Amino acid sequence: MTTLFISDLHLEESRPDITEAFLAFLDEKAAGVEQLYILGDFFEAWIGDDERTPLQEQVAAALRTVNESGTKIFLMHGNRDFLIGEDFCNRAGATLLNDPSVIDLYGTPTLLMHGDSLCTADVEYQKFRANMRNPQWQQMILQRPLKDRQQMARQLREISMAKNQGKEEFIMDVTPGEVIREMEVHGVQRLIHGHTHRPAVHELTASGEPAKRIVLGDWDKNVWWLEVRPGEEPALQKHPL
Ligand code: MN
Fold first, then answer.
1. Do 223 and 239 touch, CB atoms closer than 8 A?
2. Ligand 1 centroid, distance to 150 Cα (angstroms)
3. What is the torsional sign of CA 4, 8, 11, 14?
4. N or C end of the chain: smaller count of CB under 10 Å?
5. What is the helix, strand, coil percentage profile of the chain, to 5?
6. CATH classification at residue 100
């Protein structure tokens, strides 16, 4: 029995090397495992399930093949692909997962998040996030023609890059107090998230007990994944892309 966690692949047409690495990962690592969790920013951008680019269709078909071989696949939104909907998930044989979600991982309650909601020092971003996650706003956006949405996504990306350049390192990372608060609210001693692109296993104290925060890595230079088996410590792993 094995469960795998990945996040922050940022799949896009201009990085065929990452797509290739992902398809190889599915073949070599994911096929045959019990569960695969994808914790957000799977795609670099997402403007609606109706776009159906060749890349999206290829990835959906590959996931579906793994799902049909018996692997349960769960997908959580990131800050870049939060418009992924049920249509894509159906094509990919995946189940959409709320952020946050608590799962029972072989007997250990485990909190799963993308991670952007933990970066509370970035007040400006949190305001932006609240707007983007408003269901009415999303409905309005999804009704616009594809061309308009593609244009809007390009603009948002440029604005985001410009804003992040001026931000200090600590602002872009999680707020330690917010991590503990979320873990205590959900009554867990283990949290798995992505988003920050700072893969690591952090030991901390939550509810007066030892706790662990496991941060998944992005796929820019390495293939990162977390392997969890019953009775074993979760193992963060990587190999060069
Ligand atoms: Mn992210």
1. yes
2. 19
3. negative
4. N
5. 40, 25, 35
6. 3.60.21.10
